[in-house]
Specification:
Blueprint (H helix, E strand, L loop, with lengths): L21 H10 L6 E5 L6 H13 L9 H8 L5 E4 L8 H12 L8 E5 L9 H9 L5 E7 L7 H5 L2 E4 L5 H10 L4 H11 L3 H8 L4 H14 L4 H18 L1 H20 L8 H41 L10 H19 L6 H16 L1
Parallel strand pairs: 1-4, 1-5, 2-3, 3-4
Helix pairs in contact: 2-3, 4-5, 7-8, 8-9, 10-11, 10-13, 11-15, 12-13, 13-14, 14-15
Length: 371
């Protein structure tokens, strides 16, 4: 039986991985009954776009309209259905090669279902390939449905977005993330600290909650203002310690990646496949996710460090005589300058400098400021 207007709406289990986005889930459950050719899921990392794409794809591929129980739903949710394709970038942006592959994929016929679902990740990074992407989305075969995932919407992609139905995934609040963590068995105090460090990213929150050394890492960042002495030796050792702690924090993510590869291998064996289809694409994505986690963790640590200097700034202002309060005093000025340096370093990390050297340089300067 093919999905029709009379098919029952998808069961809630298809969107069980989407947390704190009731409006988006309602919109997708309704859209599954009469889908159009292209959707734009707009929201920051960890806000629910990716699990929503899998759930929506399952609803569109399922012969029963999204029952959540059949083999089609199970494979779509796992990302192993042949008519569900996730197109990931291979470099720093979604380039011409990915756009050409999308054109080829869009023209092929579905293998099993009545339609195929093409999910394109990181569309906000498709600036150079925007014209090719627009042409493909404007002229799709009737059997192809596009789901574009974007963190934000640069001006270059406004025309592409205008050809899609937009589904918003706003950033998750700390309260939503905290309550979800508590529901998963995390104690309330730890859940609150993890939610603050996750900055609305549920994927990051899940990993931090599984990291036994997360609270120790927070304390390490907080202790830096009292530890730095302006020498390169101390700054270098502290930077190395911080990077070692971040590397250790990758353990939960690496465990998830290992489990994903094992699941894909098991599915391939069950289907009689030789080798592991798409292994390189999966491992490339894993590498990107690890790099992104490392950068996010470093930026989050710098935010903790900036907060420590702000606390010192407030303390200095409170302790100073009323006539001399404010950042005009020497201690207050130094702490304010430290916050400014930290903020600029965090912003520079988005441009992919050598992170260890950037951190070492920052810690040396912060130590000099504190003398």
């Amino acid at each position: 039986m093919s999905p029709t207007e009379d098919t029952a709406p998808p069961v809630p289990e298809l969107f069980a991985g989407v947390v704190g986005q009731p409006a988006a889930v309602r919109a997708l459950r309704a859209a599954a009954r009469r889908p159009v050719h292209a959707y734009l899921f707009l929201g920051p990392p960890g806000s629910g776009g990716r699990p929503a794409a899998r759930g929506f794809a399952a609803a569109l591929l399922c012969p029963f309209g999204g029952c959540g129980r059949c083999d089609t739903c199970r494979r779509a949710l796992a990302g192993t259905h042949p008519d569900f394709v996730l197109l990931e970038r291979t470099g720093a942006s979604v380039g011409i090669d990915e756009a050409r592959r999308l054109v080829t994929l869009a023209q092929r016929k579905p293998f099993e279902a009545d339609r195929q679902i093409l999910v394109v990740a990181d569309v906000h990074l498709a600036l150079r390939s925007a014209p090719a992407l627009l042409k493909t989305v404007e002229e799709p075969p009737a059997s192809t449905v596009f789901i574009l995932l974007a963190d934000d919407l640069p001006p270059e992609l406004v025309t592409v977005a205008s050809r899609c139905v937009e589904v918003a995934f706003p950033p998750l609040s700390n309260e939503v993330v905290r309550d979800w963590l508590v529901g998963q068995g995390t104690d309330e105090l730890r859940a609150a600290l993890v939610a603050e460090g996750a900055a609305g990213n549920l994927d990051r929150a899940r990993l931090l909650a599984a990291d036994d050394r997360y609270l120790d890492r927070l304390e390490l960042w907080r202790s830096l203002p009292a530890t730095l002495d302006g020498t390169g030796a101390v700054a270098g050792q502290l930077a190395k310690t911080l990077f070692d702690s971040i590397d250790a924090a990758l353990a939960p993510l690496r465990a998830e990646h290992k489990a994903e590869l094992a699941a894909v291998a098991e599915e391939a064996e069950r289907m009689g496949e030789k080798g592991l289809p798409g292994k390189k694409a999966i491992t490339d994505r894993h590498s990107r996710e690890e790099r992104r986690f490392r950068t996010d963790e470093l930026i989050a640590g710098l935010a903790v460090l900036a907060r420590a200097y702000r606390d010192r700034l407030v303390g200095a202002a409170t302790a100073a005589p009323a006539a001399h309060r404010g950042i005009g005093t020497v201690p207050g000025r130094r702490d304010a300058e430290a916050v400014d340096r930290i903020t600029k370093t965090a912003a520079s990390l988005q441009r992919n400098p050598v992170e260890l050297l950037a951190l070492e340089g920052l810690l040396v300067r912060l130590g000099d400021d504190g003398e």
